[in-house]
């Protein structure tokens, strides 16, 4: 080391002592000068020896001081390094070399900056600059790189070393390893951040109170629970926020906590929210003490259980309702426990509870059944019941069955399920009257099926008859019409006017009868013709039908509005007949209107109408309409709601439409007001 500790020494005063130790020679005149010279030499020799001894003592003290300083330098708990003004290492102690992971001899003469992290080298240079200008340059934190590649977090503190002329010749720098401290600080910050995150984001209310119970910190969840902003809560005590009736218990428990009689406590209590409403909470309180064991602060966790309390109250009400139902229900109910043999097979059971309905319907008394083995209470009971109830109690698979009890001569419907492992519950009711009614219904159904079959045969025969009659009438009607027309054309000039009128009436009536026969044939074919369903472009079909019908009346002004008409699955020929008949009706019954308006479209059926997810098509007009009291007659054969003279027709058209729609699995209905128009709606499955 270049710097040593200065040692104070006394000035050497050896001459008086040397003179005392040196004998004076006899004084003779001739030898006086020589003797004096010899005496002086002896004195100086003694003086020199004394000075040498003092120098040796001072040197020894200096060495001892140097050794003690070296020991302190090398054995210091922190690193020390002596640096030149340019940052060159002059000396470094053992802990400093260990920090860097390099032998001391290899560090001497190297720039200290080589071991400073590159990002921190400007910081180190600034540190040295401050030390040159200020006696106390403070501390600097930076990263030092070790030989093995790791980095240490260190704190540097440097003091200048000056010569007797007060010129700075070097710097003594203390290096303190703060890696562990930094890690602890990071851990503390992480812990604080975690606590803050938990405290701020917790769904449960949290509060920190002083030992007297006053709020010092509250989290957002608690603020929301109580309806107060944080500023209004700080400084309040929980007793101010609590229901007065709940404070005594809370205060007593908190006093016991402060007295050290318990570590924590938990209670359920009520708080008064800012809006005056009650809040039920489950509160857990813990007390934190300082090193001396004195109360420091309390931690309160507040869980909102208001909903739980409401549910609890509802459960109590439900229990009351259940007990009332259990007691008063007409059905028999019993709770039982199954007993099993060592091999797991059911061997017996006992009833744990039965209701009054059980007694009424089974004829057994509660006091004779509850708690007793069924084999003792009812020795004649078949083993099938033990096996059935035991299987339900073991597997948990419920069963439902009917049973006829010969002793009561009654039928019962029984449902058995497992409320808990090893137990079963049975619910049964007397279905004797229902069984008798079902038997009657089955007999009626059989009679109805027989009659329906007979009616189906009769309908088929009637359809065949109608078809045959209608078909056989076509030729005679055609002959009558033809011959009456020939008579008029060939012999009309020879006939009187009355005869001509008769022939015209015969032709007109035969033509009407011909239309009726054609409609009857069409109506009859509706039940015979097979359905050939395919995708039908409804909008295009309606436009084609409408074009043909309006072309037949070229001089008539008709306003037709066509809305959305989605495609459907239907028989194209039959669906064409539906639209022809409906649109023909609309045109016929608006013939006397000054302005004919017809609307055609569709809509989705409202929920609950029974129309499924299909589409409802409609045709609306502003024509003659009808009285809704007679709407049931619209779709019957030969049913007419208007005079034939006003609106001619056969009375079969709507019946044909109804049969086609019904064959497609849909339905048709109508709405109208007399004199204000009619609307027809239909669906297709």
Can I get a quick summary?
This protein has 685 residues and is an alpha+beta fold. Helices cover 45% and strands 23% of the residues.
| Distance from first to last alpha carbon | 110 Å
Give the helix/strand class. Answer: alpha+beta
Low-confidence stretches: 1-15
Count the DSSP helices. 20
**What's the alpha carbon Rg, rounded to whole Å?**
60 Å
Largest sheet: 5 strands, antiparallel
- Our estimate of the beta-strand percent is 15-25%
Helical content stands at: 40-55%
**Main sheet strand line-up:** 2-1-5-4-3
Overall pLDDT level:
80
Total beta strand runs: 22
Global geometry: elongated
Key terms for this structure?
single chain; five-stranded antiparallel beta sheet; 23% strand; elongated
Task: Write structural notes for this entry.
The radius of gyration is 60 Å and the shape is elongated. The strands form five sheets. Strands 2-1-5-4-3 form a five-stranded antiparallel sheet, with helices on both faces. It has a five-stranded antiparallel sheet with strand order 7-6-10-9-8, sandwiched between helices. A five-stranded antiparallel sheet has the order 12-11-15-14-13. It starts with 14 loop residues before the first helix and ends with a strand. It contains 20 helices and 22 strands. α1 (15-21) packs across α2. Residues 1-15 have low confidence and may be disordered. 45% of the residues lie in helices and 23% in strands. It is an alpha+beta fold.
